[in-house]
Amino acid sequence: MAENNKKIALVASDTDVAQDAARNLEQCYNFVPIDEADIIIALGGDGFILHLIHEIMPHKASIFGMNRGTVGFLLNEFKTEGLIQRINNADSIALHPLRMTAHTDNGQKIEALAINEVSLLRQTRQTAKIKILIDHKVRMEELVCDGILLSTAAGSTAYNLSAHGPIIPIKAEIMALTPISAFRPRRWRGALLPQNSNVTFEIIDPKKRPVSAVADTTEVRNITKVDIKQDRSIKINLLFDGDHTLEERTLNEQFIY
Questions:
Q1: Which of 83, 94, 125, 164 is 20 to 30 Å from 239 by CA-CA measure?
Q2: What tens digit of pLDDT does each residue of 9-53 get?
Q3: Is 1 contained in some domain?
Q4: Per annotation, catalytic residue among 16, 20, 35, 46
């Protein structure tokens, strides 16, 4: 588009409200295919944005999302007018995903990326038993629980918050390690870790107490061990209106009661 010398693509979820919004924008602006774009306009909800990030990763384009879903935490308000000016004035937040390497009981090694969190969950009625290592040092010999998750700052207001984990400011450069329904040690509430930490979960007695690992939307079942670390070779740029940045939204979440 000539107005800002940036090539802009448009994608939308398949809901009626997102498709209607896309048609309105197409009448006002010129768009290019995603693989040619410098900026991607995404219309949908938070789930759609996460799916889009996974589909295009890695990609040089920045993403300017507009909410045509439900919560819209990772998106801006939808407006047809003034789109180019909003993009020019937007603040950029760079996200680096977590890379999960899951080892299964049949010898497979499966990798997946997570923008929000990597979570481990028990597969049966029996609690999981998990050993926790940070940077190859054992920090907890046995956590008896329904599961545990490692959350990025961007994901700290999602599943992590529902599991009573802390909200993390976007620029804090830390991750949240949060247990899910911990039984032993009963009073352990988790830990905050530097974002360059290498985290390993080892499953104790995986045959009797099977556990699955989930990196955002990718699930691996019957795991024996999971290694997680931030992948700084991949960067996702999200664009936000200057008066309602992701940093400001995350801060506001800490004062909702």
A1: 164
A2: 999 999 999 999 999 999 999 999 999 999 999 999 999 999 999
A3: no
A4: 46
